[in-house]
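$ ./design --mode recover --in tokens.txt
reading tokens...
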């Protein structure tokens, strides 16, 4: 039985992971859970999965959790708590599904503790790709992708020579504004931006999908996960979200992975690779399938171009892109800046940034702090 830590257990990926566990009690044992502020849901998860350790966002949440005198496990909070959950004895695989930069330190700690990583938190590789991959190789742990696009590329690369890859093609649904004219993007609301046409996900990634920042973060994630240069990573819009991504080989063959739009498929695969679990995701009916592919419109969705630029700049630039985006998305969700300002903020912060080398995690954490401050300053003109 495989012991797992679910970091971000109360989120979209976390809940889907626990559904995979629920359906396969003979394969997995939940050793630890890490949540943020949703203490009510965490309590239910503790009752059902009986973990040895849990962690919450901060001290107030811990107090709230401990009101339950029947609490059956050890508990901690904050970064230290998430790290303890990730590294707990008995954990074989840590599912890294905290949202944003907060996922970086627990993921690195789990790698150092020798745990395999089922990676949903793409920010980890965006911020510190070279450090993370180097450490994983040094310690000898596996980083298995949970992102459906990267899971698809991983599966499509399997059994082939890397030298034969012409490029990988990450697909993107295009989000809720795929056909929205540029002049209307200025006034779209958070509610409209949160209505993703294909996937049900957390709020941050849903907004990132609407701006295409998410696809840019995925390009950077793929750069480090598959050790391919940016030139060999392209993006195409595929509104049906059935082809999860593809690999084009030098002989002209394109190998694609297709399946239902359900994260339980890639989650289960990351947890049991190279085995597959029967019926982990719904079956896809093939009859009548319509598949469209088109180039992304970088004029209406310029954030994708910014991500390529940050990747090319390298060093601390991708961490700055990520932090500026997190700050801007949070303000957009509060209704304080317009949708189109997300691009303006990231672009302005990247322009002001003097990229530095990344030789240790502190370099990216420092860049992350700087970028959040710079983004706040850049957004002052909207208040
Ligand atoms: N959702 C998807 O389909 C999908 C697909 C591919 C990749 N991903 C990636 O997976 C990650 C999670 O996405 P999601 O959609 O599952 O997000 P989500 O639904 O917003 O869930 C985020 C989880 O992280 C916890 N959390 C947030 N801030 C935290 C902090 N500072 N410290 C500790 N825990 C914290 C939340 O806790 P509370 O809810 O308790 O506050 C929740 O459990 C992201 O990096 C995303 O890009 C998601």
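writing sequence...
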């Amino acid at each position: 039985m495989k012991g797992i830590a679910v970091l971000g257990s109360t989120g979209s990926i976390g809940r889907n992971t626990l559904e995979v566990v629920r359906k396969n009690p003979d394969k997995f044992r939940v050793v630890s859970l890490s949540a943020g502020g949703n203490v009510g849901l965490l309590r239910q998860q503790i009752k059902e999965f009986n973990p040895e350790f849990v962690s919450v966002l901060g001290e107030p949440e811990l107090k709230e959790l401990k009101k339950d005198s029947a609490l059956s496990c050890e508990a901690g909070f904050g970064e230290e708590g998430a790290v303890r959950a990730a590294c707990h004895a008995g954990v074989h695989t840590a599912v890294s599904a905290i949202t944003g930069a907060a996922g970086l330190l627990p993921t690195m700690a789990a790698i150092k503790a020798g745990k395999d990583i089922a990676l949903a938190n793409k920010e980890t590789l965006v911020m510190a790709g070279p450090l993370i991959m180097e450490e994983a190789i040094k310690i000898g742990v596996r980083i298995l992708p949970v992102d459906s696009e990267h899971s698809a590329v991983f599966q499509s690369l399997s059994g082939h020579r890397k030298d034969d890859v012409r490029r990988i093609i990450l697909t993107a649904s295009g989000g809720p504004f795929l056909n929205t004219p540029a002049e209307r993007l200025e006034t779209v609301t958070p509610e409209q931006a949160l209505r993703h046409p294909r996937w049900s996900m957390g709020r941050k990634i849903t907004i990132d999908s609407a701006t295409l920042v998410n696809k840019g973060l995925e390009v950077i994630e793929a750069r480090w996960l598959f050790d391919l240069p940016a030139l060999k990573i392209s993006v195409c819009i595929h509104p049906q979200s059935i082809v999860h991504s593809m690999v084009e080989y030098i002989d002209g063959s394109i190998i694609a992975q297709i399946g239902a739009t359900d994260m339980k498929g890639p989650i289960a695969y990351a947890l049991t690779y190279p085995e597959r679990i029967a019926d982990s995701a719904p079956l896809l009916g093939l009859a009548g399938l319509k598949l469209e592919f088109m180039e992304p419109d970088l004029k209406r969705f310029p954030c994708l171009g910014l991500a390529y630029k940050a990747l090319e700049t390298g060093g601390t630039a991708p961490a700055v892109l990520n932090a500026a985006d997190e700050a801007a998305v949070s303000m957009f969700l509060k209704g304080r800046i317009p949708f189109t300002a997300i691009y303006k903020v990231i672009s302005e912060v990247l322009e002001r940034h003097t990229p530095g080398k990344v030789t240790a995690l502190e370099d990216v954490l420092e860049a992350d702090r700087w970028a959040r401050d710079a983004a706040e300053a850049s957004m002052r003109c909207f208040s």
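exit 0
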